[in-house]
Amino acid sequence: MIARTLFVVPLFVVTLALAGAPPALAAAVGDVPRPADRDYPGVIDMSLDVTDVARHVYRTVETIPTPGPGPMTLSLPKWIPGEHSPSGQIALMAGFKVTADGRPLAWRRDPVEMTAFHIDVPAGVKAVTVSLEQQSAQPGGPVRIAVTPHLMVVKWTAMTLYPAGYRVSRIPIRASVKIPPGWTLATALDRDGGAVDGVTRFAATDVETLMDSPVYVGEHERSFDLDANPASPVRLHVFADNPDDLAASPEILEKHRELIRQADRLFGPSRRFAHYDFLLSLNEQIGYLGAEHLSSSENGYYGPGYFTDWAGLFSGHDILAHEYVHSWNGKHKRPADLSTQDYTEPMGNSLLWVYEGLSEYWGDTLATRTGLYTGSQMRERLALIAANAQATPGRAWRSLADTTNAYIMNSAGDLGATSWVRGLDYYEEGQLVWLDVDTLIREQSQGRRSLDDFARAFFGRPEPRGVSTYAEDDVVAALNQVQPYDWKGFLHARLDAVGGAAPLDGLARGGWTLSFDDQPSDYYTAYETAQGVTILTYSVGLQLSADGTVKETLWNGPGFQAGVISGDQILAVDGAPYAPDRFKAAIRAAARPGAPPIALVVKADGQIRNLSLDYHGGPRYPHLTRKAGTPDRLDQILAPRGAAAQ
Ligand SMILES: [Zn+2]
Q1: Å from CA of 396 to ligand 1 middle
Q2: What is the dihedral sign for C-alpha 610, 616, 617, 620?
Q3: CA of residue 2 to ligand 1 center, whole Å
Q4: What's the gap in Å between 448 CA and the centre of ligand 1?
C-alpha cells in the first residue's frame, strides 16, 4: 500500500476472545470459530453483479455448501491484507439475506465481530444462499470512491462472505462477475472461458487468492505487455475516463518495461508469480492510491495526465514500482505477525518499517534506475522526505517504531494533525533508515556490497511460491550475512529513539546534505500541484489549499504560535484577499529588516479573527546539496544496473 490512500470505516472493534468451539445461535462474545488447517468440504459459488453503475451498487449472490447441520458462521473480511488494519467494508453492507432451499434462515450478527454472522443450518440442507448489496461510497464520504461513470474498482473483500473455521487458503471458491455492456475487465484471476452476456467466469481458486485479486472494470481500457516472457508475463492494464488519456508513448512504455528488468536484477530471477497484472486507473475521483497483491496491484494516479503530461506531472511516478516490490516484500516474504490465516484474526504491524519502509526505498530506487524519475527529481523528492522527517516535532514523544500502529489505531492512518501526533512515518522515515543501511554497507565493504545483495539473499532466494514468513531476527541475520555489523543495535537506535534527530546519516554518507533556499524545486512544485496544496511548512509552518483553508499546521511552528490551526481559513493577508502568491509575497516582505509581522484575517470556529504572524525568516524550500570531496554513493545507488550485474 502507499501512504496517501484513504480508507475509512467507522466501525472498529477489538477482538477480546476467539473461542475454538463452534458457535450456537445465541453466541458468546466474540464466538467466531478460529481457522483450522483443513480443507473446506465443498466449493463456494460466488456471483457478483456490478452493472448498476449509476447507483453505485454491487450485488452478491453466493451459494455456500454447508459442512452439515448445526451452527455455522459466515464472515465478511475484516482485517484486510495490504491495508494493515480492520478496515473491512461492513458499514455500507445492506440487504443481507440467507436462505436454505428457498426458505429464509435467521441470522445474528456476532456481538463483537461486526463482520461475522451466525446461522443455524437445518438438517438436510446441503447449501445456503447468501445475498447482499454493497453500496460504493459517495463523493465527500469517508470511504474511498470505487465507482465512477467510466470505471470501477471491484474488491472481493467487500462483497464475499466465507465460512469461518477454516484457513481461507483452504476454502475453494468459483467466482463470476457481470459487468456493464461494452465495458472490459482486468484482473490477475484466470478466466474460465470467454464472457457470456456480460458475465465472466473465473477458474476455481481459493478464498485467499480471490480476495487478493481485485478486478478493474471500465469503459476505456488499454493493455500493454511489459514482459511477454510466457514463463511469468507482466502486463499493464490502464483505465481512464477518456480514450485519449491512454495514449502512452513508446518511450514512456519502455520505462515501465525497464522496471521489470531492473526488478529482476535487484531480486534475482525468481519471480513470485506465474503472471502479473498492473491495474492502473487515471481518474481524479478514485485518486492516488496503491494496494499490493501477489500477482497484481491496484494503482491510481492523481488524474488523467499520467501518460499525456508525463514531464509536467511527475510526482508519484514511483507508484507502480512500490507496488511491484511488494510482490517480493510483503506478499511472498511476509512478517510473521501479518501472516494470518483468515480475516478475523488480528494482524500485527511491528515490521511495517521493513514491509513498507523498504518498499518505499526500493520503489523510489527502481523508479530512478528505470527513468520513471530522473536522478534530479529523485534527489528533490528525497530532500522533501528528509525535510519532513526533520520537521516532525512528534519525534519528541513517539518513536518511529510506534508509528507502525497507526493503521490499527485508525484505519484512515492519517488524522491530519500529523506533525505532533506523527502519521505513517514508517514509510518515508523508514526509507531514510534503509538509505542509512545501504550506504553503511557500501562504506563498510569499500563499495563491494550493497543492499542489493540483501535483496537477492533475503527476498530473492529460491523458495516455493506462496507465503514465507520472517521475524526481525531473520532480517538482522541476513544483513549480517551481507556485511557483519551490529545491525540490531543500529536499527533499534533509529526505530526506538524518542527525542532524537531525524535519521539523515544515510544522506550524508550518500554524499549529500539537506539544505534550504528561497526557491522550490521542480519536484516540490509538481508535488504541490498533484496534492492541490501550497506547502509552506518550512517557513511559516502551514499547508494550505487554494482557497486558504489550512490543511495542516506544524506543531509549535510560526502559524501555530500565531493561533492558526488545521481547518481554519485564511481570508486575507496584509489587508488583501488570500491567494497563494500573495501569501508568498508577504513572507518575502516580512523578511526585510524591520518589517512588521504578517497580518492575517482568519475564519475559525465560525468567527473572524485578526492574527499576527511574527515570522521573518523568508521563504524556505528543501534541496539536497552535494558534499564536496565525498563519494556520491546516492548516485551509485540510483544508477541503473546493467544486464552483466545479474
Ligand atoms: Zn506499500
Answers
A1: 26
A2: positive
A3: 4
A4: 29
